[in-house]
Amino acid sequence: MKKIITYGTFDLIHSGHIHILRRAKEMGDYLIVGLSTDEFNMKKSKEAYYNYDDRKLIMEAIRYVDMVIPEKTWDQKITDVKKHDIDTFVMGDDWRGEFDFLHEYCDVVYLPRTRGISSTRIKNNMIHLRDDLY
Ligand code: C2G
């Protein structure tokens, strides 16, 4: 069984997230997602709209996702790759090069991001919509 892992906040799930999860799953048989905890998001200077439990519930409902584990630190990836016997690590290419140190333990693949959509853009559009309405 070929096992894949990817990491992220996955807030306000959108087509960009689904595309990378689908492509990651298509590279193997089993996809693990390291989902950033609320505390880790603060370290990433990210404030998710949904808390960890809600984002985990949503991720586990996505057909491409087989397991969700908490991402608590930048430094857990080698441990995770070994612990879960991962064959391939996948991330969007906004991270290109950042995780090449994992080459020693598994394949490392950076996939093109889906253009024109992001959780930040969704939040900003909602703010503009509210301002236009009221
Ligand atoms: N993504 C994408 N296309 C988009 C938006 C996001 O392909 N339009 C991908 C990102 O490249 C990433 C994944 O979806 O691989 C999750 O995106 P985020 O939730 O923004 O993840 P990020 O905050 O970059 O966290 O240790 C790694 C970090 O936890 C990554």
Question: Can you lay out the helices and strands and say which pair or pack?
Answer:
Blueprint: E1 3-8, H1 15-25, E2 30-36, H2 38-43, H3 52-60, E3 67-71, H4 77-83, E4 88-92, E5 107-111, H5 119-133
Parallel strand pairs: 1-2, 1-4, 2-3, 4-5
Element-by-element helix/strand order = EHEHHEHEEH
**Share in β-strands:** 15-25%
- Secondary structure class reads alpha/beta
Low-confidence stretches: none
Biggest β-sheet: strands ordered side by side in the sheet: 3-2-1-4-5
Describe what you observe in this structure:
With 134 residues, this protein is α/β, with parallel strands linked by helices. Helix content is 36%, strand content 21%. A 5-stranded parallel sheet has the order 3-2-1-4-5. Helix 1 (15-25) links the parallel strand 1 (3-8) and strand 2. The longest helix has 15 residues, at 119-133. The radius of gyration is 15 Å and the shape is globular. The N and C termini lie far apart (54 Å). [cytidine-5'-phosphate] glycerylphosphoric acid ester binds at residues 7-10, 16-17, 20, 36, 44, 46, 71, 91-92, 94, 113-114, 117-118.
